[in-house]
Amino acid sequence: MTCRTMLVPGRNVIDMDAFVAVSSLPELRDAYVNALPVNELPQELLRYTLPSRYCDSDKLSNFAWQQFGHLNPGMERVHAVSDWVHYNIEYRFGSGSPDLTAWDVVQRGYGVCRDFAHVVVALCRALNMPARYVTGHLPDIAYLDSGSPMDFHAYGEVYLGQWYTIDARFNVPRIGRIKLGHGMDAVDGAFSTIYGPATLVHFMVWAYQVNPQGMMLGDPIDLSKRLDGTTQLRFP
Protein backbone atom coordinates (compact mmCIF):
# COMPACT_ATOMS: atom_id res chain seq x y z
CA MET A 1 0.00 0.00 0.00
CA THR A 2 1.67 3.23 -1.18
CA CYS A 3 0.46 6.82 -1.33
CA ARG A 4 2.39 9.92 -2.41
CA THR A 5 1.35 13.48 -1.64
CA MET A 6 2.75 17.00 -1.60
CA LEU A 7 2.34 18.69 1.78
CA VAL A 8 1.31 22.35 1.80
CA PRO A 9 2.59 25.02 4.20
CA GLY A 10 0.81 24.88 7.53
CA ARG A 11 -1.12 22.04 9.13
CA ASN A 12 -1.68 18.88 7.09
CA VAL A 13 -4.05 16.10 8.23
CA ILE A 14 -3.86 12.58 6.78
CA ASP A 15 -6.53 10.00 7.65
CA MET A 16 -6.88 6.37 6.63
CA ASP A 17 -10.01 4.37 7.35
CA ALA A 18 -10.79 0.83 6.21
CA PHE A 19 -12.77 -2.31 6.91
CA VAL A 20 -10.56 -5.38 6.49
CA ALA A 21 -11.77 -8.99 6.44
CA VAL A 22 -9.32 -11.31 8.21
CA SER A 23 -9.16 -15.03 8.95
CA SER A 24 -10.43 -16.21 12.33
CA LEU A 25 -7.66 -18.83 12.46
CA PRO A 26 -4.37 -18.27 14.32
CA GLU A 27 -1.11 -18.11 12.40
CA LEU A 28 0.71 -21.30 11.48
CA ARG A 29 3.62 -22.46 13.62
CA ASP A 30 4.33 -25.93 12.20
CA ALA A 31 7.33 -27.25 14.12
CA TYR A 32 8.20 -29.82 11.47
CA VAL A 33 8.80 -27.48 8.52
CA ASN A 34 12.43 -27.56 7.36
CA ALA A 35 14.46 -24.80 5.77
CA LEU A 36 15.44 -25.08 2.13
CA PRO A 37 19.16 -25.40 1.30
CA VAL A 38 20.49 -22.17 -0.15
CA ASN A 39 21.05 -23.79 -3.55
CA GLU A 40 17.32 -24.63 -3.72
CA LEU A 41 16.02 -21.18 -2.82
CA PRO A 42 14.21 -19.22 -5.54
CA GLN A 43 16.59 -16.69 -7.10
CA GLU A 44 14.40 -13.73 -6.16
CA LEU A 45 14.61 -14.62 -2.46
CA LEU A 46 18.39 -14.61 -2.14
CA ARG A 47 18.34 -10.88 -1.40
CA TYR A 48 16.51 -11.72 1.84
CA THR A 49 19.50 -13.75 3.06
CA LEU A 50 21.84 -10.73 2.88
CA PRO A 51 22.67 -7.98 5.39
CA SER A 52 20.84 -4.65 5.04
CA ARG A 53 20.92 -1.18 6.61
CA TYR A 54 19.17 -2.20 9.85
CA CYS A 55 19.44 -6.00 9.68
CA ASP A 56 23.23 -6.31 9.90
CA SER A 57 23.22 -10.11 9.95
CA ASP A 58 26.94 -10.26 9.14
CA LYS A 59 27.72 -8.84 12.60
CA LEU A 60 25.43 -11.40 14.25
CA SER A 61 26.58 -14.45 12.27
CA ASN A 62 28.96 -15.92 14.87
CA PHE A 63 26.45 -15.40 17.67
CA ALA A 64 23.61 -16.93 15.63
CA TRP A 65 25.49 -20.13 14.80
CA GLN A 66 26.82 -20.52 18.34
CA GLN A 67 23.35 -20.00 19.83
CA PHE A 68 21.15 -21.83 17.31
CA GLY A 69 23.43 -23.84 15.03
CA HIS A 70 22.87 -27.10 16.92
CA LEU A 71 19.12 -27.04 16.25
CA ASN A 72 17.35 -28.58 13.28
CA PRO A 73 17.31 -26.11 10.39
CA GLY A 74 13.82 -24.77 9.85
CA MET A 75 10.95 -23.94 12.18
CA GLU A 76 12.77 -25.31 15.24
CA ARG A 77 15.47 -22.68 14.73
CA VAL A 78 12.88 -20.01 13.96
CA HIS A 79 11.03 -20.73 17.22
CA ALA A 80 14.33 -20.66 19.12
CA VAL A 81 15.27 -17.31 17.57
CA SER A 82 11.87 -15.84 18.44
CA ASP A 83 12.05 -17.22 22.00
CA TRP A 84 15.54 -15.82 22.53
CA VAL A 85 14.59 -12.34 21.34
CA HIS A 86 11.34 -12.36 23.32
CA TYR A 87 13.03 -13.32 26.60
CA ASN A 88 16.34 -11.46 26.19
CA ILE A 89 15.32 -8.15 24.62
CA GLU A 90 13.18 -5.96 26.87
CA TYR A 91 10.28 -4.11 25.27
CA ARG A 92 10.44 -0.43 26.24
CA PHE A 93 7.70 1.77 24.83
CA GLY A 94 9.12 4.95 23.28
CA SER A 95 12.73 3.72 23.20
CA GLY A 96 12.96 3.44 19.40
CA SER A 97 15.48 5.37 17.35
CA PRO A 98 15.91 5.59 13.55
CA ASP A 99 19.63 4.84 13.69
CA LEU A 100 19.61 1.54 15.64
CA THR A 101 20.51 -1.71 13.88
CA ALA A 102 19.82 -5.29 14.99
CA TRP A 103 23.39 -5.51 16.33
CA ASP A 104 22.88 -2.32 18.38
CA VAL A 105 19.65 -3.65 19.88
CA VAL A 106 21.26 -6.96 20.90
CA GLN A 107 24.07 -5.02 22.59
CA ARG A 108 21.80 -2.69 24.57
CA GLY A 109 19.11 -5.31 25.32
CA TYR A 110 15.89 -3.34 24.79
CA GLY A 111 13.82 -1.74 22.07
CA VAL A 112 10.41 -1.43 20.41
CA CYS A 113 8.63 -3.70 17.92
CA ARG A 114 10.70 -2.34 15.04
CA ASP A 115 13.86 -3.41 16.89
CA PHE A 116 12.44 -6.86 17.72
CA ALA A 117 11.65 -7.33 14.03
CA HIS A 118 15.11 -6.26 12.91
CA VAL A 119 16.77 -8.69 15.33
CA VAL A 120 14.72 -11.75 14.36
CA VAL A 121 15.13 -10.98 10.66
CA ALA A 122 18.87 -10.49 11.02
CA LEU A 123 19.32 -13.71 13.02
CA CYS A 124 17.32 -15.75 10.51
CA ARG A 125 19.38 -14.32 7.65
CA ALA A 126 22.58 -15.14 9.53
CA LEU A 127 21.31 -18.75 9.61
CA ASN A 128 20.77 -18.70 5.80
CA MET A 129 16.97 -18.49 6.04
CA PRO A 130 15.36 -15.76 3.90
CA ALA A 131 13.63 -13.25 6.17
CA ARG A 132 11.94 -9.91 5.58
CA TYR A 133 10.71 -6.99 7.66
CA VAL A 134 6.94 -6.41 7.74
CA THR A 135 4.83 -3.50 8.90
CA GLY A 136 1.09 -3.44 9.55
CA HIS A 137 -1.61 -3.54 12.22
CA LEU A 138 -2.24 -6.08 14.96
CA PRO A 139 -5.70 -5.88 16.56
CA ASP A 140 -6.23 -7.63 19.90
CA ILE A 141 -8.52 -10.35 18.50
CA ALA A 142 -8.82 -13.19 21.05
CA TYR A 143 -5.96 -11.53 22.93
CA LEU A 144 -6.01 -9.40 26.07
CA ASP A 145 -5.53 -5.68 25.53
CA SER A 146 -2.16 -4.67 26.97
CA GLY A 147 -3.44 -1.18 27.75
CA SER A 148 -0.58 0.55 25.91
CA PRO A 149 -1.27 3.08 23.13
CA MET A 150 -1.85 1.38 19.77
CA ASP A 151 0.64 1.95 16.97
CA PHE A 152 1.68 0.49 13.68
CA HIS A 153 3.27 -2.89 14.34
CA ALA A 154 6.49 -4.36 12.95
CA TYR A 155 7.37 -8.04 12.79
CA GLY A 156 9.14 -10.50 10.51
CA GLU A 157 8.45 -13.22 7.99
CA VAL A 158 10.75 -16.17 7.29
CA TYR A 159 10.67 -18.32 4.15
CA LEU A 160 10.49 -22.10 4.69
CA GLY A 161 8.89 -23.16 1.42
CA GLN A 162 6.32 -20.42 2.09
CA TRP A 163 6.37 -17.27 4.19
CA TYR A 164 5.69 -17.72 7.93
CA THR A 165 5.12 -14.94 10.45
CA ILE A 166 7.72 -14.50 13.19
CA ASP A 167 6.80 -11.92 15.84
CA ALA A 168 9.13 -11.97 18.83
CA ARG A 169 7.37 -9.02 20.47
CA PHE A 170 4.37 -11.21 21.42
CA ASN A 171 5.80 -14.66 20.54
CA VAL A 172 2.43 -16.41 20.20
CA PRO A 173 0.25 -17.12 17.14
CA ARG A 174 -2.17 -14.23 16.64
CA ILE A 175 -5.45 -13.68 14.77
CA GLY A 176 -6.25 -10.78 12.48
CA ARG A 177 -2.83 -9.44 11.52
CA ILE A 178 -3.17 -6.78 8.79
CA LYS A 179 -0.11 -6.51 6.57
CA LEU A 180 0.65 -3.19 4.90
CA GLY A 181 4.06 -3.84 3.37
CA HIS A 182 7.36 -5.69 3.55
CA GLY A 183 10.99 -5.29 2.53
CA MET A 184 14.59 -5.68 3.60
CA ASP A 185 14.14 -3.62 6.79
CA ALA A 186 12.48 -0.45 8.09
CA VAL A 187 13.83 1.51 5.12
CA ASP A 188 11.26 -0.36 3.02
CA GLY A 189 8.58 -0.47 5.71
CA ALA A 190 8.38 3.03 7.17
CA PHE A 191 4.83 4.33 7.66
CA SER A 192 6.01 7.61 6.09
CA THR A 193 9.07 8.95 4.30
CA ILE A 194 9.28 12.72 4.27
CA TYR A 195 11.46 14.89 2.03
CA GLY A 196 12.03 18.30 3.58
CA PRO A 197 11.23 19.78 7.03
CA ALA A 198 8.06 18.58 8.72
CA THR A 199 7.09 18.11 12.36
CA LEU A 200 4.70 15.38 13.54
CA VAL A 201 2.37 17.01 16.07
CA HIS A 202 -0.31 14.32 16.51
CA PHE A 203 -0.40 10.61 15.75
CA MET A 204 -3.12 8.08 16.55
CA VAL A 205 -3.71 4.51 15.39
CA TRP A 206 -6.80 2.38 15.97
CA ALA A 207 -7.14 -1.20 14.71
CA TYR A 208 -9.91 -3.17 16.38
CA GLN A 209 -12.58 -5.75 15.65
CA VAL A 210 -16.09 -4.53 14.89
CA ASN A 211 -19.31 -5.80 13.40
CA PRO A 212 -19.37 -3.94 10.04
CA GLN A 213 -23.18 -4.00 9.93
CA GLY A 214 -24.43 -0.61 10.97
CA MET A 215 -21.01 1.05 10.57
CA MET A 216 -19.61 3.04 7.68
CA LEU A 217 -16.17 4.20 6.64
CA GLY A 218 -15.39 7.58 8.12
CA ASP A 219 -17.56 7.08 11.23
CA PRO A 220 -16.00 8.59 14.37
CA ILE A 221 -13.95 6.18 16.48
CA ASP A 222 -16.31 4.55 18.95
CA LEU A 223 -14.61 2.18 21.37
CA SER A 224 -17.99 1.09 22.71
CA LYS A 225 -18.39 -0.86 19.43
CA ARG A 226 -15.04 -2.58 19.81
CA LEU A 227 -15.35 -6.37 20.02
CA ASP A 228 -11.78 -7.40 20.80
CA GLY A 229 -9.31 -6.94 23.65
CA THR A 230 -10.45 -10.13 25.43
CA THR A 231 -9.65 -13.80 24.95
CA GLN A 232 -13.12 -14.35 23.48
CA LEU A 233 -13.26 -14.87 19.70
CA ARG A 234 -16.47 -13.12 18.64
CA PHE A 235 -16.62 -14.35 15.03
CA PRO A 236 -15.25 -17.91 14.86
Largest sheet features: 4 strands, antiparallel
| Rg result | 19 Å
Helix content: 10-25%
Percentage of residues in DSSP E strands = 5-15%
**Treating each run of at least 4 consecutive H or I residues as one helix, how many helices?**
5
Shape call: globular
Averaged pLDDT, please? 93
Number of strands: 6
Distance between the termini: 28 Å
Q: Order of strands across the widest beta sheet? A: 5-4-3-6
Secondary structure class reads alpha+beta
* Contiguous uncertain segments of 5+ residues: none
The sequence of SSEs as H and E is HHEHEHEEEEH
In short:
With 236 residues, the chain is of the alpha+beta class.
What do these coordinates show?
The structure is a single chain. The chain is of the alpha+beta class. Helices cover 22% and strands 12% of the residues. It contains five helices and six strands; from the N terminus they run ααβαβαββββα. Helix 2 (75-88) packs antiparallel against helix 4 (113-126).
Index terms:
236 residues, alpha+beta, four-stranded antiparallel beta sheet, two-stranded parallel sheet, 6 strands
Could you give the topology of this structure?
Elements: H1 57-68, H2 75-88, E1 90-91, H3 102-108, E2 110-111, H4 113-126, E3 131-137, E4 153-159, E5 163-166, E6 178-183, H5 186-189
Parallel strand pairs: 1-2
Antiparallel strand pairs: 3-4, 3-6, 4-5
